[in-house]
Each structure stands twice: as structure tokens, then as C-alpha cells.
Design brief:
mainly alpha; 2 domains; HutH; Histidine ammonia-lyase; histidine metabolism; lyase
């Protein structure tokens, strides 16, 4: 895997995923190191100024008017990190921790924070050595950045706290020693430079967009299989109809569903005058509209993420003319809003998927299929309870779609009196993506069985997807442990193998 250089150009979200999820190595560019040295020289000059400068010779937050004597400034930085490393709850996933570290490192490399070269190089070395600070799920308000999670990063760089190296929990000092690294003693301004950023929520946005690349294509595949298995028509997906309402995402999904159904003997079998149905149910006919809305939402989130990836977020910042200026760029509102927007779109896509699944199981609406697609209805329950599982997940997805970003609880003695809750929006989005993956897996598993119960064959591409499912999941037969079938199908969705079989090529949503 190619080494990713930080400092010559903003990272894109694919590079973030490569480092966070696939552990690509990173390096700092010479230009970045020069910028770091230049901005540090500005901070060093201000440290000796008799006038107060926030974060350099003063306290933090509501204590910004408290002057700090030079002899106490190292202790000030250490105290900041120790007190702010206050997360709680389940351990955050390693890929999120890596993304958090990487994006803070990218901001440090802009030379706008005043951090020292040695501190920045230590962060890069920790990332390459796979030293991942343990971060609890709760603690960030998404304003003044992801303070608590980022403080755990800085604490580890100081040689304190707990880290994870592969599956082993270690004291940070021991992990650094094993990697041949020396802990840092923070100087003026560095505490703020290491913790004032939107890096955690941005990292989770990057990974969510990668996962949605895969899952929205999977939703199109699932819809095509359901149209086929429920004897639907491909007529509503025509390009001329999409042109009447030219949303980009809608056109993409419609074209993909139509291509997946092209040449299907099942679809062709009921195109004649003997088919008396005027139009299909909404969950079949309107799939491009719902999936397309989610695609357009993701595209908007992508644009917001790209701006954030090109940003240098700290408070105060060192400007090119040497001024050190306080600002509000650490507020997570832009990211929080799109994280919530994506959760809404996911809930809608999953809700439609569950409705298509339910049609297969109801003999009044499945056009000749046995109840619940059971082998021996009455003795066997077939896929009855798979739809219950879908319904339970969809219900949770609707709860997760309630925006986090509309909430705010003041902090820091009312100095920080409006916060974004963007970290919480990102955490619930990760759970929503997991739920969508499971809902879609149940739909494709159900549609595969429904198609196989028809007299006519599936189309080439949907048939290839069914064949891939059958390599791991048996077809119709007496009832068996259904949880295993669901999990095996979910694994095929997660890996991208199902899409590849249908001729839709991804890397499993991982880049």
C-alpha cells in the first residue's frame, strides 16, 4: 500500500479511509515541516511578551483571563490534557481513533497551530506504529472540537494513559518505549493545538461515506431483485422518465436498477397483455426516488467533508502574517448537520427495503409465492421472523434519525454556550449504517429465495448475485437456524462480494 504524504495537499476521504481502516503508512512533507517551524517561532516570540495571549500565557475557556507565569506553563499544558481526557463508556473503534489522529496531524501540518516539529513527528510515528489511545464513546460535545477524544491522543503522546497496540492494552509509556519513541513534554500553546478540532466527527463522516458508496449500490441491487421476484416491471426506470425530474441520484439509481434487470426472463415473462396490473407498489416503483435522494444527500455530505478536509482548525490560530487570533472554526455545526442528514436518508432507504421484503412473505401480495416463502407452510415458518428482525432495526433507525445537532447544552461556565453535538451525530450514524447493512442483507436473502421459486430464470446479473449467496447460504428447504443465514448474507454485503458478482465493483466500502 502506498505511503500517504501529509502536508502538500489536503487529504481526501479515500486517503483518510486508507489510513484509518487499512493502516496505510504516512509521512510528513518537507514543506509541512517548514511551516510548522515558522509558526512555532511566532508562538515562542509571544511566549515572552508581557501582554497576555490566549493559550500561550493564559488559562483556557472560562479561565482565559487568568495569567500564567512562565514557570507554570508546562504544567498548564499537562493539566489541560489530563483534565480534558475525560471520556467514558465503551471503547471507540480503532479505525475511528486512527482517523482522529490522522486528521489532527493534518491540521498540525498546516503550520497554523504553533505546535513544535517534535510533537507533530511523534504523532506521525505513533500512527505508523499502531499505537492507538483508548477513547471512551462519550465525552465530546462537538464544539471546541472533539476535546475529550483528542485529549486522550495528547495524553498518550505525553506517555500517560492507556493505549491499544493490536489487541494488547498497554500503558502509553510502555508502548512508546517498545516503539523506540520518547514521550513529549508539551510547550506553550501545544495543548490547545492538539485538542481543538473536529477531527473525530470528520473521520467518522469519511468512513460513513465510504460505506454508503457500497450500501446504496446494494440497495439498488436489492430493489432490482425484489422487482424481479415480485413480478414487477422495469418500465418506471426508463431514462426518459428520469429526465422529467432530473435529480442526479435518482437517475443513477434508476439506470442501475434497469441495467441489473436487463434481459431478465422473469421480467419478460409478464410484459404481455395478459398482465392486468397497471402499476407496481411504491416500494418497487419509487425505489430510484428514495435511493436517489440518499445518493444526493451523500453527495452534499461529500462536499461539506471536502471543505473540512481542506481546513486548518484550531483556536487560536497562527495566521500567515504572524498574528495569533481567536476564532470559532472549531464549531462542529457544518459536519453535525450532514451527519444527521445521512441518518435520515439511511432510515428512509431501510424502511423501503423492509416493505419490499414484507411483500414477498404475504401470499396476498406476492403473486403466487408460498406464505413466508416456507418449504412446508404451517410446519415451516420460512422467512417470517427475518422480517421481524428488519422491522426492529428499521424502528431503531427511525429513532437514530432524530437529529443530534438540534441539541445544545452549555458548558465551561457558559463560555461555551452553544455546542454542535456532532460527535454524537457521528456515533449514531455508525450504528445506522450497521443497521442498513443488515436490513439490505435480509432483503437480498429474501428476494433470492423468491426468485428461485418462480418458473422463469433470473437475469444474468441478479442471477450471479443469487449464485454467490448460494455459495454460503442454502436455498429453500425445511426451517434451519435463520440467524446464520442472515449473518452470512450480511458478510457478503459487507465485503462487496455481492456487488462484484452483479457486476458492480467496489472495494467493500473501504476506500
Amino acid at each position: 500500500m502506498q505511503e500517504i504524504v501529509i502536508g502538500d495537499a489536503p487529504l481526501d476521504r479515500h486517503q483518510v479511509v486508507q489510513v484509518a481502516r487499512h493502516r496505510a503508512r504516512i509521512a510528513l512533507s518537507p514543506a509541512a515541516l517548514e511551516r510548522i517551524d515558522a509558526s512555532r517561532a511566532v508562538v515562542d516570540a509571544l511566549a515572552s511578551d508581557v501582554r497576555p495571549h490566549y493559550g500561550i500565557s493564559t488559562g483556557f475557556g472560562a479561565l482565559a483571563n487568568t495569567a500564567i507565569a512562565p514557570a507554570d506553563r508546562t504544567r498548564l499544558q499537562q493539566s489541560l490534557i489530563r483534565s480534558h481526557a475525560a471520556s467514558s463508556g465503551p471503547e471507540v473503534e480503532a479505525e475511528v481513533v486512527r482517523g482522529l489522529m490522522l486528521l489532527r496531524l493534518q491540521t498540525l501540518a498546516t503550520g497554523r497551530t504553533g505546535a513544535r516539529r517534535a510533537t507533530v513527528e511523534l504523532y506521525a510515528a505513533m500512527l505508523n506504529a499502531g499505537i492507538h489511545p483508548v477513547v471512551g464513546e462519550h465525552g465530546s460535545l462537538g464544539c471546541s472540537g472533539d476535546l475529550a477524544p483528542l485529549s486522550h491522543m495528547a495524553l498518550a503522546a505525553m506517555g500517560e494513559g492507556t493505549v491499544r497496540v493490536e489487541d494488547e492494552l498497554l500503558d502509553a509509556a510502555e508502548a512508546l518505549r517498545r516503539a523506540g519513541l520518547e514521550p513529549v513534554v508539551l510547550a506553550e500553546k501545544e495543548g490547545l493545538a492538539l485538542i481543538n478540532g473536529t477531527d473525530g466527527m470528520l473521520a467518522m463522516l469519511c468512513m460513513a461515506l465510504a460505506d454508503l458508496d457500497r450500501l446504496l449500490d446494494t440497495a439498488d441491487l436489492a430493489a432490482a431483485m425484489s422487482v424481479e421476484g415480485l413480478l414487477g416491471t422495469d418500465a418506471p426506470f426508463a431514462a426518459e422518465l428520469m429526465a422529467l425530474r432530473p435529480h442526479a441520484g435518482q437517475a443513477t439509481s434508476a439506470a442501475q436498477i434497469a441495467a441489473l434487470l436487463a434481459g431478465s426472463p422473469i421480467v419478460a415473462s409478464h410484459k404481455g397483455p395478459e398482465d392486468t396490473r397497471v402499476q407496481d407498489a411504491y416500494s418497487l416503483r419509487c425505489a430510484p426516488q428514495v435511493h436517489g435522494a440518499a445518493r444526493d444527500t451523500a453527495a452534499h455530505a461529500e462536499r461539506v467533508g471536502a471543505v473540512e478536509l481542506a481546513s486548518a482548525i484550531d483556536n487560536p490560530v497562527v495566521l500567515p502574517d504572524g498574528r495569533v487570533v481567536s476564532n470559532g472554526n472549531f464549531h462542529g455545526a457544518p459536519i453535525a448537520a450532514v451527519l444527521d442528514f445521512l441518518a435520515i436518508a439511511i432510515a428512509d432507504v431501510a424502511s423501503m427495503s423492509e416493505r419490499r421484503t414484507d411483500r414477498f412473505l404475504d401470499p396476498a401480495r406476492s403473486y403466487g409465492l408460498p406464505p413466508f416463502l416456507a418449504h412446508d407452510p404451517g410446519v415451516d415458518s420460512g422467512l417470517m421472523i427475518a422480517q421481524y428482525t428488519q422491522a426492529a432495526i428499521v424502528s431503531e433507525l427511525k429513532r437514530l434519525a432524530v437529529p443530534a445537532s438540534v441539541d445544545s447544552i452549555p458548558s465551561s461556565a457558559m463560555q461555551e454556550d452553544h455546542v454542535s453535538m456532532g460527535w454524537g451525530a457521528a456515533r449514531k450514524l455508525r450504528r445506522a449504517i450497521d443497521g442498513l447493512e443488515r436490513v439490505l442483507a435480509i432483503e437480498v436473502m429474501t428476494a433470492a429465495r423468491g426468485i428461485e421459486l418462480r418458473d422463469d430464470a433470473a437475469g444474468e446479473r441478479t442471477g450471479a448475485a443469487i449464485a454467490t449467496i448460494r455459495e454460503d447460504v442454502p436455498g429453500i428447504g425445511p426451517d434451519r437456524l435463520l440467524a446464520d443465514d442472515i449473518e452470512r448474507t450480511r458478510a457478503l454485503v459487507a465485503s462487496g462480494a455481492l456487488l462484484a458478482a452483479a457486476g458492480i465493483h467496489h472495494d467493500g466500502g473501504n476506500a
